[in-house]
Each structure stands twice: as C-alpha cells, then as structure tokens.
Amino acid sequence: MKQGDCAGAKPSRLSVLLVDDSEINRLFVSSLAEDLGIALDCANDGAEAVRLLRDHGGRYQLVLMDLQMPVLDGLGATRTIREELQLGLPIIALTASADPEQRENCRRAGMNGFLLKPVEGERLSQLIDHYRACNDASGEYGKLKLGTLDLLHRASAARLSSTLREAVATCREEFDQACQQWREGDAEAAARLIHRYRGSLGTFAHDGFVRQTLDLEHAVRQGEKDLESRFDAFRTELDELRRQLQRWMESRAD
C-alpha cells in the first residue's frame, strides 16, 4: 500500500514521526519543530518506529525514515508498516545518496519520496508544507473509505443510511462496555466486542483503524497488561471515525 501525493489547503499542525539513530539529526529536527508547525515524536530505529505505529497508528500524518539504522533498517521498517500494519501514511526516506537503484528499492518497499542528508531546513520546510496541505485536503473524511461509501450509497442509499446510523449510535457504548469487561478481567468478552468493529465499521474505515482493531483484539485475547493507553488511542480513533461518518451522512441527506 502506498499513499499518493496531493496539494494545497490551509495550514495546520502536522504530527510527524522521525526515525533516526543519530542523536544529532534528532536534535536538529526537534529544534525546528516549533517553526515548522509540527508535533514531533522520535524513534531510535526501525523496530521502535514499528512499535509506535502499531500502538498509535492513527496519531501520525508523516514519517521521516532514515535508511541505515541498527536493529531494523528503514527499508525493513517500511515493508513492515505497509505489509503487516497495513498503514498508508506517507514515509519519506532520509538518505545521503539517492541513486536510481536506491530510489527503486525505496519505492518497492513503499516509501513516498526522499530527503537528502544532511537535512536542510528549507527543504524540510517545503516537504512539511506539502504533506500538511495533503493532510488538510483529505482531513474532513480522512478516516473513511469514501469510494466504498459512495458505491454502497449509489446501490442502496436508504439501507446504507440505516446501517451507518445504527453503527454510529451503538459503537461508542459497546466500546465502553468492552473497556469495562477488560478491567473486570473478562478478556474474552471484551475481545468479542472489539472484534465486532471489523464488521460494523471496518468496511467503511481507513486501514489504520482496521489494523488498530486487530491489534487491540489480539492484545486483549493474549492477556497483555497495562492496555489503558491502547484503549485510549483506540477511543480517540473511534470518536473521530464516528464524527466523520456523521458528517458524511449529513452531506448525503436529501
């Protein structure tokens, strides 16, 4: 999966994940974060980046990925993000050399572009502005599969509207119930409720939501501890998905 390019809308704060084993590079980009208008998180290697995106896939709109890193390099991390996590957010390679062979390797892994090192502030600013505009342009319905919704709407507007109204009305209540069941130690019941989201909302939701659903369900079934942050992240995704579905339904109302 690879997200395409787009252009221009009003400025907003962009959430960026920088993946680089060089402390100097992390400090340099961090020093520019305020001026660039970005919320920046950093990972020391590809494996740490994969963990962050697995737990908080909906948090970021852009990844800056160094290619040469210990533990898991940039190409390996990108392949995992695309193939295993099924996330489509843009990933930009940070590299000292972008010869044709390296460009092709990055493209095949699922990267969207390149930023040459050492990173120059002006070029970084241009890149951020581009993807900020990209994010703003799709932000209103960015968590929905609009093509699927439009297709189903054309096939049966009334039936789709009824299905969406029920899903929006009940999903938050069911999620709160799943949280309570997990806190009370009934992991199996909680996992069953979370599993239902793949059927009730997964058809209409972006890939990150579906991936988050699968990961949370698996974590609950495996009896993992300290899942409050995972539940909080999922709740945030769920609430925004509900808001976007509600807006989409209102925009299609007669």
TrEMBL record:
SUPFAM superfamilies reported in the protein's UniProt record: CheY-like, Histidine-containing phosphotransfer domain, HPT domain
Coiled coil regions, renumbered to chain: 224-251
Record-listed 4-aspartylphosphate modification sites: 66
Record-listed E.C. numbers: 2.7.13.3
Root EC class: transferase
Pfam families to which the protein is assigned, alphabetical: Hpt, Response_reg
This protein's name: Autoinducer 2 sensor kinase/phosphatase luxQ
